[in-house]
Specification:
Length: about 550
């Protein structure tokens, strides 16, 4: 059965699942070039062009039903197949992808999200803990909601009804905020969109641990410290009530400490609160846990969990934000219709779109030329095959630079027009990962954790060492397209490691087409655009 999954909210995506396997995936922002784009109309048109007579079922998932009725009517008209709306299973969509992608037969799945399913204008999902296995499906153990404008009597009635739906679940609704919305308060404090949590994560390392307010108690946000406003794009935003008069324009390289200290506290307290939930629901018989939802992209927090629970087997879903929910919704339908408990053979990442042909007129080169260019301190953009579906550059759409250069960070930040305080990741040969303190794991293929760079190597690779001595890394083995490049680099330098960042500029989605790649080459200080598949390149002259 061919199922079309649609996630129409922010970071909208579509996915075609054929007998449980991903056949096509599109993220709308890659087509419109507008970050966090809603309503995937261009993606749906591409699906219609390719699969117009062969879609058997359409499932549309969204936290709010208001966002998908028009899409549903269009799909019914053009695909002429049954359609199902699943607006009450937002967190379950997150959990379905993470569990099926983990390789575990049984696991706890923790979904930590800013805003899940919207139950009218009353409450919204915040955090959910599931027990998952292929025989019994998804059993809710814990659900935390944040409340909107609702009186106590109506709230109690709603919670009683939900308790009947989830009879074995601990239900909590005591705050107007979620753990992720507390994190958001630091992001909006510096004037950024609430979904740009990676900027808070980078800034938090510049902060110091000071006496501060207890923002969260027993994994429940303390309401008196927060305040709702409406931000850009009419997006509901949480800010810290204590700092409501602070002008975000005062945040700069000369005056950042106040903001960094608050970011530090938010990072520290939110990751501890999420870990407390893990500790509460983990059982001696369960050693596997998956982390997903928007907060699951927090690589600093993920490393903290691994340190705090060294005996647990963690899987951090690479496509943890809402862009993965088109796959998750399709998976839920697949298992309903397939009537099988068979575990799917998934890769741990997914790729976007349809492959482009490389023009034959581009100049040819060999890999040695690229190695020599890197040693000559040239910046190299990689364009290979399909683009990564998620937010991490894993080699197909990457910018590479020599991380032995102490000025690497400022050079590449200038190319990307990124903020001064944000760190860069690294791609490293698996056999050279000894440079990092791997805290009990032997690989990190999808950049879902950060690790301390061992003291004796920080001067060797200064370009990827963050202010706190850490780095988010991707370890690669012989099956990776860049393995040969890093191996040749190692023969000349002693180390198979490079700075690796996403192929885009600040404020824009990941490069999708060759035309977009050439545009970045021409408009920035990027030096070389490399096509490893055909051994071709374009050099900025």
């Amino acid at each position: 059965m061919r199922i079309l999954g649609i996630s129409p909210a922010h970071d909208s995506t579509v996915c075609v699942l054929n007998n449980g396997q991903i056949e096509r995936f599109y993220k709308e922002e890659r087509l419109t070039r507008v970050k966090r784009e809603r309503d995937p109309w261009l993606s749906l048109l591409k699906i219609y062009e390719e699969f117009n007579n062969s879609i058997d079922y359409v499932v549309i998932g969204s936290p709010s039903p208001d966002s998908f009725w028009n899409i549903g009517r269009w799909c019914k008209r053009v695909f002429k197949c049954p359609i199902e709306y699943v607006c009450d299973e937002h967190h379950k969509q997150h959990a379905a992808l993470a569990f099926c992608n983990s390789g575990f037969n049984e696991a706890l799945v923790l979904v930590a999200d800013r805003c899940g399913t919207n139950y009218g204008e009353a409450i919204r999902e915040a955090e959910t803990m599931y027990h998952c296995d292929y025989s019994n499906g998804f059993t809710e153990l814990y659900k935390s909601y944040w409340k909107m404008d609702i009186n106590d009597e109506s709230l109690n009635e709603l919670l009683n009804n939900l308790q009947k739906k989830y009879p074995h679940c601990d239900l909590v609704c005591e705050s107007q905020y979620s753990i992720t919305k507390v994190y958001e308060s630091a992001t909006t404090l510096i004037g950024e969109h609430p979904l740009e949590g990676g900027k808070t994560m980078g800034l938090s390392s510049y902060g110091i641990d000071t006496d501060s307010s207890k923002l969260i108690m027993d994994s429940i946000p303390n309401d008196r410290y927060f305040y709702h406003i409406t931000s850009r794009e009419d997006f509901p935003t949480t800010i810290n009530r204590e700092h409501i008069d602070i002008d975000s324009n005062s945040f700069n390289q000369e005056s950042y400490q106040f903001f960094a200290d608050y970011a530090y506290q938010v990072q520290k307290q939110t990751q501890e609160s999420v870990a407390d939930l893990i500790e509460k629901y983990i059982k001696p018989s369960t050693k596997n846990i998956c982390i997903t939802g928007g907060y699951g992209l927090n690589v600093v927090a993920n490393s903290y969990y691994k340190k705090r629970f060294p005996d647990l087997n963690f899987f951090f879903e690479p496509l943890a934000d809402d862009s993965g929910n088109s796959i998750g919704s399709a998976l839920l339908m697949h298992y309903r219709f397939a009537k099988t408990n068979t575990k799917l053979n998934y890769k741990n990442t997914f790729f976007h779109g349809v492959k482009e042909n490389i023009p034959k007129e581009y100049e040819h080169c060999n890999e040695d030329f690229i190695v020599d260019s890197l040693l000559d301190q040239k910046s190299i953009a990689v364009y290979h095959g399909l683009a990564e579906a998620g937010p991490r550059s894993l080699g197909n759409r990457s910018i590479l630079f020599d991380c032995r250069n102490k000025d690497a960070k400022s050079i590449v930040n200038k190319i990307k027009n990124r903020e001064w305080y944000r760190p860069f990741a690294a791609i490293v040969l698996e056999e050279d990962s000894y440079i990092f303190d791997m805290i009990g794991v032997n690989k990190s293929e999808y950049m879902t954790m950060s690790f301390s760079v061992k003291e004796e190597y920080r001067d060797v690779v200064p370009g990827i060492v963050h202010v706190d001595g850490t780095c988010r890394i991707q370890t690669i083995s012989s099956n990776h397209l860049l393995y040969s490049l890093l191996s040749k680099l190692k023969k000349k330098t002693g180390y198979g490691i490079l700075l690796n960042t996403s192929f885009n500029v600040a404020g824009e989605p990941l490069v999708e087409t060759i035309q977009e790649a050439r545009k970045v080459l021409l408009e920035t200080d990027l030096n070389i655009l490399w096509f490893p598949e055909t051994d071709q390149f374009i050099m900025d002259i």
